[in-house]
Amino acid sequence: MAETNVIQEISSIAHHLPLEVLQDINQRIGDWLASGGNENDPYIRQQLRFAQRFVKEI
């Protein structure tokens, strides 16, 4: 089974997130990638977990 890209996973639940939350996650990921990080780093997975927890609370 192929590993799903973490950013794709975030995108798949994005429609459940308030705009402010989605913008915050987008900014954090953008800053991380601009500073030399990559899409598979634990920090990006942390952003996914944050988004997933937020969706569960709604």
Classify the beta-strand content into a percent band: under 5%
User: How many H/I helical runs?
Assistant: 3
- Low-pLDDT windows of residues: none
**What's the pLDDT, averaged over the residues?**
92
Proportion of helical residues: 55-70%
* SSE-based structural type: mainly alpha
Question: Major beta sheet, specifics?
Answer: none
- Please report the total strand number as a whole number: 0
Using the CA coordinates, give the radius of gyration. Answer: 11 Å
From N to C, what is the helix and strand string?
Answer: HHH
Shape: globular
Give short descriptive properties of this protein.
single chain; 58 residues; mainly alpha; 3 helices; globular
Topology:
Elements lengths: L5 H8 L5 H16 L7 H16 L1
Tell me what the structure shows:
With 58 residues, this protein is mainly alpha-helical. The chain is built from three helices and no strands. Helix 1 packs parallel to helix 3 (42-57). The longest helix is centred in the middle third of the chain and has 16 residues, at 19-34. It is globular and about 35 Å long. The relative contact order is 0.20. The mean pLDDT is 92.
Brief account:
The protein is mainly alpha-helical.
